[in-house]
Structure formats: structure tokens, C-alpha cells
Amino acid sequence: MLDNHQKNIATFIHLSTFSRFLIPFGNFIGPIVLWVANKEKSVFVDEHGKQAINFQISMLLYAIIIGTISIPFFIFNIFSDFDFIDFNGFSDFHINIGKPSALLYIGGALGVLAVIAFIIELVLIVNASLKARDGEHYKYPFTINFLK
Q: Which residues cross the membrane (predicted)?
């Protein structure tokens, strides 16, 4: 039988990921500290802690992948008219904003995808917190299980 303390700890593990808006890497530090301090006391808290940490690691991995893919599209678009062989090219270097290329559209689409993923992440964290508050088990979608 779950008591309110276990439910509250599991809820705060999920909600502590929002500390990233105040503390760098708070989305990792908060859940790890709460999970490590309480994982031996409850299987319920242990499961929610692992899920929260796995989800945050997965989201970081996805953000790195999207960033790694999208940044070159923006860089290639900015330097598309630049002649790298001509060493005097800096005298007439300009950025042409009026003529967007397909690279800019692809990079922009990946940027929009990153914003949508961020909003989905926030919704999933709130949903997991509500499930933990109610004493239910929750498994984040799109999660790679690093901690088992």
C-alpha cells in the first residue's frame, strides 16, 4: 500500500525536472538527488525516479541529434554565396536574407520540431507528475531505458 509520502516523493521527482529553468542541469540534479535518497525506501519511488532520469537523458540525446542535424543547414545557408577559394572574399562578404534556400527551410523545420518536442516534454512531465500523485505507475513515451 502506498502512503502519501511515497506519492509526494515520486511527484517531486518528476516536478524537479523543471528546476532546469533556475539551475543549469537542474533537470538531472533534482531527480537524481531525490531518487538516490529515496530509492531504497520504496519500489514505487525507485520506478518513477528511473523513468524521470531516463526520460531526461533521452530528451538530451534527441536535442543533441536535432541540433547536430539543423545547425549545418543554417551555416551552409549563411555562407552559400561565399567563395572560400578567393582570399579577398571578406571585402564583399554579405548575408543575403532576401533569398532563402531549401537549406534554410529544412533547418527551420528542424527548429520547429525542436520547439514542438519541448512542449511535448513539458506536457509529459506534468502528466507523469499527476500519475505519481495518484499512485499510478507511468512510463514515458519516446524513452530509452538507460537505468533498468
A: 21-38, 59-82, 102-126
pLDDT digits (tens, 9 = 90+) for 29-67: 999 999 999 999 999 999 999 999 999 999 999 889 888
Q: What is the pLDDT of residue 95?
A: 56
Residue 47 Cα to chain centre, angstroms: 20
Indicate the DSSP class of residue 146. Answer: S
DSSP readout, 40-60? TT-HHHHHHHHHHHHHHHHHH
Q: Which residue has the cell 531505458?
A: 145
Indicate the DSSP class of residue 90: G
The CA-CA-CA angle for residues 70, 75, 80, to 5°, reads 125
Backbone angles phi, psi at 118, to 5 degrees: -65, -45
Rounded Cα–Cα distance for residues 129 and 133 (Å) = 6
Q: Residues 78-116: pLDDT tens digits?
A: 666 655 555 555 555 555 556 666 767 777 788 888 889
State the Cα–Cα distance between residues 129 and 109, nearest whole angstrom: 30
